[in-house]
Amino acid sequence: MQKITILIHCKDRPNIIASVTNFIAKKDGNIVYIDQHVDREQNIFFMRLESEFSKESFSADAFRDAFRINLADIFDMKWRIYSSARKPKMALFVSKYDHCLYDLLGRYNSGELNLEIPFIISNHLDLKPIADNFKIPYYFIPVTKETKAEAEQKQLDLLEKYQINFIVLARYMQIISEKLIAEFPNKIINIHHSFLPAFVGAKPYHSAFKRGVKIIGATSHYVTEELDAGPIIDQGVTRVSHSHSIEDLISKGRDLEKIVLANAIKLHANRKVMVYNNKTVIFS
Amino acid sequence: MQKITILIHCKDRPNIIASVTNFIAKKDGNIVYIDQHVDREQNIFFMRLESEFSKESFSADAFRDAFRINLADIFDMKWRIYSSARKPKMALFVSKYDHCLYDLLGRYNSGELNLEIPFIISNHLDLKPIADNFKIPYYFIPVTKETKAEAEQKQLDLLEKYQINFIVLARYMQIISEKLIAEFPNKIINIHHSFLPAFVGAKPYHSAFKRGVKIIGATSHYVTEELDAGPIIDQGVTRVSHSHSIEDLISKGRDLEKIVLANAIKLHANRKVMVYNNKTVIFS
Amino acid sequence: MQKITILIHCKDRPNIIASVTNFIAKKDGNIVYIDQHVDREQNIFFMRLESEFSKESFSADAFRDAFRINLADIFDMKWRIYSSARKPKMALFVSKYDHCLYDLLGRYNSGELNLEIPFIISNHLDLKPIADNFKIPYYFIPVTKETKAEAEQKQLDLLEKYQINFIVLARYMQIISEKLIAEFPNKIINIHHSFLPAFVGAKPYHSAFKRGVKIIGATSHYVTEELDAGPIIDQGVTRVSHSHSIEDLISKGRDLEKIVLANAIKLHANRKVMVYNNKTVIFS
Amino acid sequence: MQKITILIHCKDRPNIIASVTNFIAKKDGNIVYIDQHVDREQNIFFMRLESEFSKESFSADAFRDAFRINLADIFDMKWRIYSSARKPKMALFVSKYDHCLYDLLGRYNSGELNLEIPFIISNHLDLKPIADNFKIPYYFIPVTKETKAEAEQKQLDLLEKYQINFIVLARYMQIISEKLIAEFPNKIINIHHSFLPAFVGAKPYHSAFKRGVKIIGATSHYVTEELDAGPIIDQGVTRVSHSHSIEDLISKGRDLEKIVLANAIKLHANRKVMVYNNKTVIFS
């Protein structure tokens, strides 16, 4: 039994669903999940579909080729077909904050995450003992103004060497360069510690305290060139009051950050996110 | 342009989705919404589908007949096909509490609800002025031990006369008889003022206060013979603390009741709810 | 039995609590509620206190005088003492949206609000039938560029004539002038249909849709000269997804607006809000 | 500078607050936090107070004695006075589930928890490597029908030897005996994986799935003799839908369990919880 996941988006027009489901039926596939969405403003059609194939002779590559010719080219689709056999590989970037790292490695060890973490990159040595405890390689790549280009090249080399599929910035406190973003478009997940678009940039808990908001939040999003302005994957919030100090906001926020980032990682790793027009469609 | 909504459930087996979408394509329909669910424990397949037909010659009745022969009989489906042309008719049952009534009539007047309210039934006269303000007929049908059967017959006569599709108990403080439940299976929506299955029965806010819970809730569900045990449509919760008295819980609960009941009504009226095994599938 | 509520804020220094509680004990008062807060950044002390006096001879005015001399002057307090005997008077300003109006008048009629609504002001005639139903005077004061000053004078005359204590803008679609704000400092409550400080200004649901947020919100705040930047009283949020259109956001947002505005009104009317540095302390 | 926390509850009567605050003022203490609550149904008064003493000569023991004679005996108070100098000691009991353990040890290492964890007890060896990583002693005490009494004695010996103040059952899958409960009254914190009082006992996620609830929860509570019926400290909830399998509920529930348990531990360790009539007063 082989299982594939298909993600499609294209200009909306009649008969896409029937054409795709028909195609799969002819290939002896059994659709076990289908969900679709139409953005009526932009007239864009989105679909996510999981199908099982029980025939010995099924070849994912042959299926891809047939799909391209019979469907993708005709409907002018943007599409991806993933085999469930391969787990995505995720690189973890961290700096000094340890809460997201502990949380993710705990989940990883428990088998909760459907992915592999070949290594951790950090611009500091502080969190190396945690990586050691969890027996995950930890690459210390310091970043200074002078070494920025060199450091980035080291990162790119590692990402290539380990064939990394996507990157997670678990409170990594460095700006990601255009080059790295261009190499991993909509494949770098950041956790920002505010309810975006409120409090973009540095020290959002301080800004939230100053504004006197009654609810704080955290936002996981794909990194784009504009700071904290990429497509939002998930958000979480929690109530606060005048009695909470900035330190209280930071402490309460940590729980939000952990959960919102973990959610985004799971959605991405399970191929449930599609991106267009700087927004996401989440098929959960 | 005509639009229909199809709800299906049946034993899961391969090719249902492809067969249905293919059938609609052959009838020149354009699928604008499809969602599906499989209960893997029970091996039951569920689907909700909206399709538009632009041909002048399209007949919903002919479509129903063809659907029955070509699909429903073959897959042994339980199915319903609704035309969007007809708004469902809803009867409102109330007693003395006015908050759900104000809320629903406010929404109704604003055009937020896709349904008709031909009349209100009550076992008390208290809320008649509100019905009068909103210019909706108000039938006062008192219920006593002696008159219970007679009262129920009056209710049934009204429900039949106005061709009511479903009933909403907006804090109606009378037990609904087996007969009425049998006439409107999964078509009577109740709002219970607790987070079911906690605090079944009378005075749930008092029980919640006594137990010292930190969160209270409200639950909208279809009425079945067993008290407060029918299929759950929606639930809502809000935080409380030791500082809240029973009166505070009642006051905070009112806002939950209003929203949770309104949500359930909208889901039902828009044909987004399917019921099986005393549970609901909500295609929202 | 008379009951008073005392609100205090001043520079923090030792013995304020003991001095105040002692003073009340000497006046034969029984403290039934006390809560306090210290803003450690600004070194400001806040207290809210409810006290009951059972002696026939108790005079709120005499108490106020003694409080001023013995406590307020010494600690350089900003303070208010309210008698529970007097309900605050609230003026409702509306335009064309009816959901907050229905909600508030429903609550008012049910006795849920501890206040009086002497009249409604609107720059449109659309909602007059609702005011008529609820038998509340409705003053139609159209506002155009030319008549703005004159219209405002009419408003001020009404506010004075009815001895209004605070104003609620229930989706009133006009900018409030500096003059009115100056007359009612921290006494004009607005409901903004976004999670402030995100999406300040017009059409926040459209902006939220465009940005692709996964949670929308509503914010009740006091009106200050800067648009949507006044002290926040309460906020509420609800989850949304890619499947929601702008119309869906507007519809879901209505429920948030109703509840968040009603919460703010109750907090204000029950003298539970203190304002300083453009923030609120909420003693709930 | 010394700081103490005072917790009081007693029959409500006039002048308690003034008497206590006056007493502290006379001892040259500065009250930095005061909160109080009256259960009007039971006529019980509760207060939590933090006070700082800057005099060299201040003695917490002498203060306790004076408090007893001048206040506690007169008002017939149940009271506790804690010095902030001493961190409470917490014993962790675990079985095979690791998510709460990872979460708590991560928080512990980050300095988020104001307590000490001298050791971990488990009836299985599975989680020993985690304890080793975090360098916390791990006592493997297997429990069988035959060895139950002996195992419990070993536990009691360890609890005494390390002078443990309270116990946390982080998904410890054994019934706690009456003897242990009697030794640690309202000092054993359990995390139950449902929204109590719904789904008491084993396999609550399975029961929640079967009932078709739309929201699941977790509850932290003090252990009493009756199963899952002790005083509730905190609860958390999250939305679920028909599309979630039992495994999904378990996975989503883990995040609730972690946060709700951590919240309860923080509240308890910071002396913010008072218990009476099988309920809690939380001064947060």
From TrEMBL, chains A, B, C, D:
Hydrolase as UniProt keyword: yes
Entry-linked InterPro entries: ACT-like_dom_sf, ACT_dom, Formyl-FH4-Hydrolase_C, Formyl_transf_N, Formyl_transf_N_sf, PurU, PurU_ACT
Pathway note: Purine metabolism; IMP biosynthesis via de novo pathway; formate from 10-formyl-5,6,7,8-tetrahydrofolate: step 1/1
Enzyme Commission number: 3.5.1.10
Reactions accelerated catalytically: (6R)-10-formyltetrahydrofolate + H2O = (6S)-5,6,7,8-tetrahydrofolate + formate + H(+)
Keyword Transmembrane in annotation: no
Active-site residues (renumbered): 228
Keywords: Hydrolase, One-carbon metabolism, Purine biosynthesis
Residues annotated as domain ACT: 5-86
HAMAP family cross-referenced by the UniProt entry: PurU (MF_01927)
Purpose of the protein: Catalyzes the hydrolysis of 10-formyltetrahydrofolate (formyl-FH4) to formate and tetrahydrofolate (FH4).
PANTHER family tied to this protein: FORMYLTETRAHYDROFOLATE DEFORMYLASE, FORMYLTETRAHYDROFOLATE DEFORMYLASE 2, MITOCHONDRIAL
Assigned protein family: Belongs to the PurU family.
Protein name, entry field: Formyltetrahydrofolate deformylase
Gene: purU
